[in-house]
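The records we work with from here on pair a chain with its fold. Taken together, the tokens spell out the fold as the letters spell out the chain. The record below shows the convention in full.
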Amino acid sequence: MSLKTKLRKLTVASIMSIAVVPTMAQDLIARQAPIDRKNKAVEQMSLKKIAEKENLENPASDLYAEWENKRTHASYVVPDNYKIDLRGFHMPTTSRVITSNFGPRWGRQHKGIDIKVYIGDTIRAAFSGKVRIVRYEAKGYGKYVIIRHNNGLETYYGHMSKQLVAENQIVKAGQPIGLGGNTGRSTGSHLHFETRLCGLAINPALMFDFKNQDVTGDFYTYRKASNAAESLQANSLRGKNDQHGYKREDVQGKAANATVNKTDAPAQTEEKPTAANTDIRWYKVTTGDTVESVARKNGISVETLCRLNRIGRYAKLTGGSLLRCS
């Protein structure tokens, strides 16, 4: 073979090898692409699992630096503005009757709202979350539960007759967490319900519409600058009404007893206090007491006793509870 022929063959081989290199590189990239996508998917799943685990251990960890069960009111830095996700909610009770608003009451600040429930009524978690506190406070909340949620809120449920959950337990929205009661500093069976953001009490009426058994929207944005004004407006729209009677309602929102308004509703006449009885008087219920017997013992009408304590004429009284008599 001549030198010229050898050079020609060598040139052709070189050209072919150069042409093959990009093709091989493309094949390698093509084979590597599915592997890269799989690795990326695995990485995303790992990050998601880490985030889910963190939320289980410490819900809303972006707001709360730690998880602890010691302090009832654990305070943290409250953001000036914070968007709260209200989707996936469940009403804590089927009752539609608000008996006391959020705000000033009896010379001090009422940090939540009171909803009329009866002893034994089911109380449910408002959102999914983790139970932080299960405790009893004789001069305050009575038997109460606090749950922290991933949307940043902590919800408080007070004066229950029984707690059905334990601290550090994971709960789902709508899960029973306790039974309605009259424990602690309470003058009649009801649910004291609070919503707090980083320890700051926010009016639940800004987010929950108990009369319509719904939330006010998919989201609520807390704004420090306008919260007070918004709270007053929420009370006027979704707070306590001026009716004296209570109407017990079931899951469908219908009266469980159609005669409640006729038999249990106190008359709307009010007795004006005189100079002699302007001081508040309290009566401690003893076993066997009825609304009528307590009224008779304290020299007031049944209607007045019912009005002062927001109870019905035939309400069942619990021994040891306090009734306001003036």
